[in-house]
Amino acid sequence: MPERLNAKRREQSVMGHRLPEARLTPWAAFWAFVYLGLPVLALGLLMDVLVQWVSGRCVGLWCYF
Fold first, then answer.
1. Integer Cα distance of 20 and 7 in angstroms
2. In whole angstroms, what is the distance from residue 10 CA to residue 7 CA?
3. 13 φ, ψ to 5°?
4. Phi, psi of 19 (to 5 degrees)
5. d(Cα 10, Cα 18) in Å, to the nearest integer?
6. Among 37, 38, 62, which residue's Cα sits nearest to residue 49?
7. Is the pTM value of this prediction over 0.85?
8. pLDDT exceeds cutoff 80 at 24
9. Would you say 59 and 52 are in contact if contact means Cβ atoms under 8 Å apart?
């Protein structure tokens, strides 16, 4: 199976110049953090606030400061 996938990925060239391979750019990492990392952080913050509001105990990292 992997051999079939690699066989389809031949080196692409335009007018004799080899095209660079796809790679993770800094902008892609930034937007991945915005769309994946920030919502996870926001949900964690919301859960910490709700637990503190309901139980009166601080369970967040900021409680140590």
1. 17
2. 7
3. -140, 150
4. -80, 145
5. 11
6. 62
7. no
8. yes
9. yes
